Amino acid sequence: MSDLIQTIANLSADAADINDKLGAFIGAGLAMLGATGVGVGQGYAAGKAAEAVGRNPEAESKIRTMMIVGCAIAETSAIYALIVAILLIFVAAPQ
User: Fold this and answer.
1) b/e string for 47-62 if b means 16 or more Cβ within 10 A?
2) pTM exceeds 0.85
3) Is pLDDT above 90 for 55?
4) 3-class SS of residue 95
């Protein structure tokens, strides 16, 4: 009888471990949605910068500088999302 209880306890512990890992991996995937948003935003900014240069070619250097600064600031969100995803995969769900 104690073997059966021990087996049930081991299965329960394994199921809890699998659920923890599954939650960590789902959270990592959700964290990377931040990188998707950054990609969309940077593409939109580049498109608007190209449109602005088409309208005012003399201001190309200022527009380019402003776009690069804006994209660099936006990229920090993607880097934070990547760090959170890596932490979730390697810390919250150890192998």
Assistant:
1) eebeebbeeeeeeeee
2) no
3) yes
4) coil
pLDDT over 60 at 11, yes or no:
no
Which DSSP category does 93 fall into? S
Classify each residue of 81-91 as buried b or exposed e, where b means 16 or more C-beta atoms within 10 Å of its C-beta.
beebbeebbee
Whole-angstrom distance, CA of residue 82 vs CA of residue 85: 5
CB 38 within 8 A of CB 74: yes
pLDDT on residue 9: 59
Taking residues 68-76, report their average pLDDT: 90
Rounded CA-CA distance 83/34 in Å is 11
Neighbours of 79 (CB within 10 A): 12
What is the pLDDT averaged over residues 83-92?
A: 86
Q: Could you tell me the sign of the dihedral formed by the alpha carbons of 80, 82, 88, 90, in that order? A: negative
